[in-house]
Amino acid sequence: QVQLVESGGGLVQVGGSLRLSCAPSGAYAMAWFRQAPGKEREFVAAITRNGGNTRYIDSVKGRFTISRDNAKTTVYLQMSSLKLEDTAVYYCAAKPWGLGSSADEYGNWGQGTQVTVSS
């Protein structure tokens, strides 16, 4: 088990940017999920242990970038061109390997960080 801690959330206007961080990433494949009020938790992006492969949901492709700094054991989610529908609590999650998009595959979760996009 690893205790994950997210940071970097906040309030931003439509079209703005935010960078979320999650530590420690350790020797894990990592992912970001989000959950908007009244909706189910949704996969956003994932990255392999060595950072060589990534995966995104269609709605964030070209706007979000997942990356990791293994020296700092931190995973990032750079979010740009933010839209109102990106408003949610964002969670990072870890598992031993792979780019799975199902929350059930991940055994380690952070507490979440709120991202609010305003018009």
Could you please describe the fold and organization of this structure?
The structure is a single chain. The chain is an all-beta fold and 119 residues long. The protein has strands at 5-7, 10-13, 18-23, 29-35, 42-47, 54-56, 64-69, 74-79, 88-95, 108-109, 113-118. Strands 2, 4, 5, 6, 9, 10 and 11 form a 7-stranded mixed sheet that branches. A 4-stranded antiparallel sheet has the order 1-3-8-7, with no helix packed on it. A hairpin with a 6-residue loop joins strand 4 and strand 5. The protein is globular, with a radius of gyration of 13 Å.
Task: From the structure above, extract its key features.
single chain, 119 residues, mainly beta, seven-stranded mixed sheet, four-stranded antiparallel sheet, 11 strands
Brief write-up:
The protein is mainly beta and 119 residues long.
Residue share in helices? under 10%
Strand content: over 45%
| Radius of gyration over all CA atoms, rounded | 13 Å
Report the uncertain regions: none
Quickly count the helices: 0
Helix-and-strand structural type: mainly beta
Main beta sheet: 7 strands, mixed
Shape: globular
Mean pLDDT, all residues: 95
How many DSSP-defined strands? 11
Give the H and E element order: EEEEEEEEEEE
How far from one another are the termini? 39 Å
Element layout with pairings:
Elements: E1 5-7, E2 10-13, E3 18-23, E4 29-35, E5 42-47, E6 54-56, E7 64-69, E8 74-79, E9 88-95, E10 108-109, E11 113-118
